Amino acid sequence: MSPIEKITKAAHLIDMNDIIREGNPTLRAKAEEFTFPLSDQDIILGEKMMQFLKHSQDPVMAEKLGLRGGVGLAAPQLDISKRIIAVLVPNPEDEEGNPPEEAYSLQEMMYNPKIISHSVQQAALADGEGCLSVDRVVEGYVPRHSRITVEYFDKDGHKQKLKLKGYNAIVVQHEIDHLNGVLFYDRINIAEPFKIEEGVIILD
């Protein structure tokens, strides 16, 4: 049974065993574009990826399934070399601990996403980046564009365009990198991991 057949079975819940780790050649391959209209299997794949992110952020489900928390997932991480990413970025609670009005600042399944424009200015996360396919900590700043415009197709085959900045822009760039065989630590300055180039914004 192929990975996509296994993952899109009705009863299957994606867990950490489905996620391939560094060293697997699929993570270094350039993924294939989807053709439209999407097959039922392609649509279910996107829905299962989003379901995984929701489970990974739910303390009860995460513990039950043994999941690491995630805000993004790309199909190549499931050993499926196709150009789809799912992103789910929760909004924080307010200072008094009340839940936000909108649960998520970004919730999208993107088929064939591509960055069509970006800022010259770069940004990096203060704590660096992690990845569900990388089981070790790799320290260092990962410089990325601080603002991007991404174009993609939704599951109905409609072209969409989103302008993103800050953390949401970084999450989407991290996931699109997976579609091109790039891992986050490829972007770290190996000689000086915490060197800050002029003009780079560090996001807490």
From TrEMBL:
Molecular function as annotated in GO: metal ion binding; peptide deformylase activity
Sites where the protein binds Fe cation: 131, 174, 178
EC number: 3.5.1.88
CDD domains: Pep_deformylase
Keyword Metal-binding: yes
Family: Belongs to the polypeptide deformylase family.
Function description: Removes the formyl group from the N-terminal Met of newly synthesized proteins. Requires at least a dipeptide for an efficient rate of reaction. N-terminal L-methionine is a prerequisite for activity but the enzyme has broad specificity at other positions.
PANTHER family given in the database record: PEPTIDE DEFORMYLASE, PEPTIDE DEFORMYLASE 2
Name this polypeptide is given: Peptide deformylase
Gene: def
